[in-house]
Specification:
Blueprint: E1 8-12, H1 19-29, E2 34-35, E3 38-40, E4 54-56, H2 59-67, E5 71-77, E6 80-85, H3 86-94, E7 99-102, H4 105-114, E8 119-124, H5 128-138, H6 143-158, E9 165-168, H7 172-202
Parallel strand pairs: 1-7, 1-8, 2-7, 3-4, 8-9
Antiparallel strand pairs: 3-6, 5-6
Helix pairs in contact: 1-7
The structure holds adenosine-5'-triphosphate and ligand LQESDW3C.
Length: 205
């Protein structure tokens, strides 16, 4: 647990919904937001770079990170570990900058337990059939991984109720605009409304 200065934003949702795609455009549109790079034991996909897309680790290295409490959250997802390096997130919010974590649902709910002041956004597919199309057309998964990811998606969709916001990714640019509206509203609440509210409570009537 750490004292919040910048906002911690969690973007989560089932595999293939478009979290990475939406985050790339958001990153372009909103360069003031910092992106957390996760650690994983998954093998790199073509074009992925260590330290840019993920910090790629062996299972032993990842388990050492868990033991040394280096991760803010971690989860085992369809056979691999994924986790958020704690130090970078803590330093970023301490310096007053907003950070976004693009993570799956089990990990997001762990962050919510530790850090309920975070902003939790669930990215939804227009339909399950479209979700399946998107993972297939990405062309990165084996048949087994595809089935595992779709099975996980059914459970993950039920966890949507634990999030602050649900955003449909029908069109990438529209989804990004919705997320930007959420971030703007949350910034206004935090910077312009909460400080006055605390002041009013101290006033003598
Ligand atoms: N709004 C959209 N309409 C059509 N296709 C989309 C849309 N958003 C993303 N896609 C496509 O869907 C596929 C999955 O997107 P992406 O890799 O961003 O998903 P993800 O949620 O990050 O997946 P994972 O959790 O597995 O990393 C990609 O091929 C991407 O181009
Ligand atoms: N709990 C966490 N989940 C993470 C993290 N980084 C990424 N992810 C999620 O894992 C799945 C699979 O990712 P893929 O790159 O293999 O397709 C996806 O939902 C990611 O968002 C993390 O640090 N913690």
């Amino acid at each position: 647990m750490f004292l919040q200065k910048g906002m911690l934003i969690v973007l989560s949702g089932p595999s293939g919904v478009g979290k990475g795609t939406v985050c790339s455009l958001l990153r372009h549109e909103q360069p003031d937001i910092i992106y957390s790079v996760s650690a994983t034991t998954r093998k790199p996909r073509a074009g992925e770079e260590n330290g840019v897309n993920y910090f790629f680790k062996s299972r032993e290295e990842f388990e050492k990170m868990i033991k040394e409490d280096q991760l803010l959250e971690w989860a085992e997802y369809v056979g691999n570990y994924y986790g958020t390096p704690r130090g970078f997130v803590e330093q970023t919010v301490q310096t007053g900058k907003d950070i976004i974590l693009e993570i799956e649902v089990q990990g997001a709910l762990k962050v919510k337990e530790k850090y309920p002041e975070g902003i939790f956004i669930f990215l939804m597919p227009p339909s399950l059939a479209e979700l399946k199309n998107r993972i297939i057309h990405r062309g990165t998964e084996s048949d087994e991984s595809l089935m595992n990811r779709l099975n996980a998606a059914r459970n993950e969709l039920q966890m949507m109720k634990h999030y602050d916001y649900a955003v449909v990714n029908d069109e990438v640019s529209k989804a990004v605009k919705r997320i930007q509206a959420i971030i703007e509203a949350e910034r206004l609440r935090k910077e312009r409304i909460l400080p006055y509210y605390e002041q009013w409570l101290k006033e003598e009537l």
